[in-house]
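ARCHIVE CARD
SHELF: 3
SLOT: left
DATA:
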Amino acid sequence: MFNLEGEKWKFVRAKVSPTFSSGKVKYMFSAAMQVADRFVDTFDDIVRTESQRELRDLLGRYTTDVIGTCAFGIECDSLKDPNFIFCQYGRKVAKESNLNPILYFLITMFPNLARRLGLQIIAKDVTEFFIGTVRKTIEYRKKNNVQRNDFMDLLIQINKDGNEAGQHSATTRTLTLEEMAAQAFLFFAAGFETSSTTMIFSLYELSLNQGIQDRGPQEINDVLTKHNNKLTYEAMKEMTYIEMLINGADFRIFSSKI
């Protein structure tokens, strides 16, 4: 969406922005929780056999599985298999985020010139992988009438609503496959490394401060008690101290980059 212009940007923004409302995020909460449960099981297995563990890669695989499940509707298993193909492309996207700033400026500010020169931010194989993944997912869901309460469902519903509206208006159009893949990729690129890095900083802060170690779990236990020991979307929103811890980690990441 950041690289679109004019009416195309306006159209895609109007279609996609509502999918990131708090209500739509709540819609995907159960899918994220399923991955969280697998993460807990994986971590339990690790601490039984290892006294030390590098968390950056593990948390990166966790965020890959969450976004793969919520955005693309794929049952990723990179927590168990570090070489899972989705995880491989996640690492490649993270590396490409370090693109030469001059080249990035040229591509974003002079897109027509960049296209003529054959310049692009995302490698061709990455583009083909994500577009192919979205195409297969959409075809499978339409053919088998599958619903998973995730971001891909929301994109499919956008086009369904657009098709129905198009019967009454010649100017109404739907998202193309490439536009749908681009929004799912944006979801992935924006959340893959950023989320895992925030969790690492949060855990580091916990390791240094006994007071936070005591107060954080206490708030979690108090809130869960009010919700029959079930982590729901509403329960999570009540964990204000945990939110402050995460926001503090975000601030430290931002401060370290300026």
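SLOT: right
DATA:
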Amino acid sequence: MWQSMLVEQIPLLEKILRTVLVYVVIIVLFRATGKRGMAALNTFDFVVLFLLSNVVQNAIIGPDTSLVGGVVGAITLVALNTLINRLIADTAGRHPRLTRLLEGSSTTVIRDGRIIDAAMRRLGIRRSELDHAVRTQNGDDVSEIAAGELDAGGHLVLSLKPEEQSATKADIDDLRRQLARLEALLAKR
């Protein structure tokens, strides 16, 4: 029993190479198919993720069913992912082309209160998802949005038009100062 659990059944280098290659293929697939973030996944996206993990399992572990083989695959995946994330973070300002290749770029979906339908179709974003993003980012309607982008990480980032933005504490303090000056002027009369 311990023999089959602890003894690798394929060479360590092959296990690492299989894991790296599957990781790269999956990254390329996800980059090619879109940039929806984890928060924006729908039921179909979750089904694909669950099935995908099962589909590539044998490609990663091969005929190795040992505990050590599984641990090597897991460590390789986590280490590779950490390395890629650090590479993206380190190159962000210095190598924009590499960052864009690894991470992607943002796509404008709303401009001056108008939805860009072609971008929405290309990204696979439904109107209900966009309306939800507007509401969660302090808007009531798309017409209130100056600019809206789906960023490289898959988040919808919206900027309200200036006239639609809520008053800040500084705005209220400024109004209080103006009111105090008006009251002082009226008191002098």
